[in-house]
Amino acid sequence: MSTALAIFVKTPGLSPVKTRLGAEIGTEAAVRFHRMASAAVAAVARAAGASLVPHWAVAEPAALVHPDWTGFPCVAQGEGGLGERMGRVYQALLARHGSVLLVGADSPQMSASLLRGAAAALRGEAPFVIGPSEDGGFWLFGGRAPVPNRVWTSVIYSREDTAARFQQALAGEGAVTPMPRLFDADTATELAAVRDALAALVAPLPEQAALLGWLRGLGLG
Prior knowledge:
It holds the Pfam family DUF2064. It is built from 8 helices and 7 strands, in the order βααββαβαββααβαα.
């Protein structure tokens, strides 16, 4: 059973990128982080092995053939809020694969073993898996069963109770296996935590090491 992995990205120059982070560290640095973090997550996806089939989930229709998003097939997020867009990508990939994992590009400290573990969990008893983030959201969601549209759209995203409310909405659809909690980088404080998590990796990939070096040069607290 193959597992599709969708990496959600926005394209600099076509959409605002990491605006909350940019307000603290500057727009240029925030865009640089997004690009380097996307490259790191892509490297992790490749390292996870052939059982994962990575895709770029691209926000802008015009960017489906953009040079930023090469190496993997692209799938359109489409219109609407984050829940609608995640639901659309999940449904499209589930129609072609046995299971689907959705991740963002702002937790570049994720590892290949974490992705493999999430995919393996979906071959177990629970049909869903979630990786909560420290800010109350989630850095990963996956499943092998359909998720009703009401689950995706009933949740307010980017809040401290987003993951909890998403799991409550999903409760009637099946059990959820929890994954380790990670930071994602929406603020300078979280970016420093991502830096520290990258520094703690035993065997970082070259793209992760490059991002770590750049983050150290920012002089974050």
